[in-house]
Here is the input.
Amino acid sequence: MPIAAQLPYRLYAHIGSPYSMKMRAVLRYRRIPHVVMGRVSDWAKAFGQVRVPVMPVLEYPDGTFHNDSTPLIRDLEERHPERSLRPAQEVDVFLADLIEDLADEWLTKAMYAYRWAFPDHTLWTGRLIAFDQHFGGGRASIEQQGHDFETRQVGRNALVGCTDANLPMLIHIAETVLDALEPNIPERPFLFGTRPSNADFALFGQLCQFTLDLAAIEPCQKRAPYTMRWCHHVHDLSGLEGRWRNEDESISPAVQALLDLAGDAYLPFLIANQAALESGADRVQIDAHGLHYEGTPFKYQAKCLAELRAGYSALSSQAQQTIDPLLAEHDCLSALAN
Here is the structure.
């Protein structure tokens, strides 16, 4: 059915949620009719309809509710083939999935650190996010809600690995991603051609928070001004037309650099996380880039590793022959082909 003939989707989302901004940008680019429900008062209905009450929630035209951005993106691909986010090359589809996962699960740790690990900024961070969530609610209420939200989120720092000991690793993740994108964005704004993929939107979801969060704004703007400006464009690409990379065109240097990050740190983290879960250990630890990371193992990251391995296994033999040297060059192959 043509998208224009569809009833609108309802996206329960807010500005301070990286996955909300990822999904809003996807819906805009793909020209899928939708409305954004951006206040806490809108969300109670949506949260009551999903198993895990996390942002964003997408209400479909048939009245069903779903969340988790990656499955949402894939389901929308099945329902609406126009302006797809899936690259033309089978190899690029897998690489886009890997980079999407890296952004959603590894870069997000840096986003959380910039938001909640710098005490000089957390007071106003809490207030500004409360302003987004309780838009028009009045200053006194917003500041009280902001205080409560700040207290809850800072209290979760240790659980999500946002500790003083881990901070060098977390900031290094952000700097590595910014350094991967910044030299390439002026000539090649997207990873797999002149149109955006799911990987581009996943990176955007995290990075657009760097344009909002007080501890991130100055260092990230100084380090990667084009990348920060790129975020403002990706918020709405509804008018963009582009094409995918052809097989005879080189892979973007940004993709190569992001694969280095995956091979050096993210995939080793996923493997260590799985090992911790299997052994019953209560900590997951890795060393990468000359830095140390230690945190709580999570079952969701074990699911991520399993899905990446399944995605690699599902590649055609020709695609594996093409991609294996690239993955091996960046120390990704052994983790994925296991």
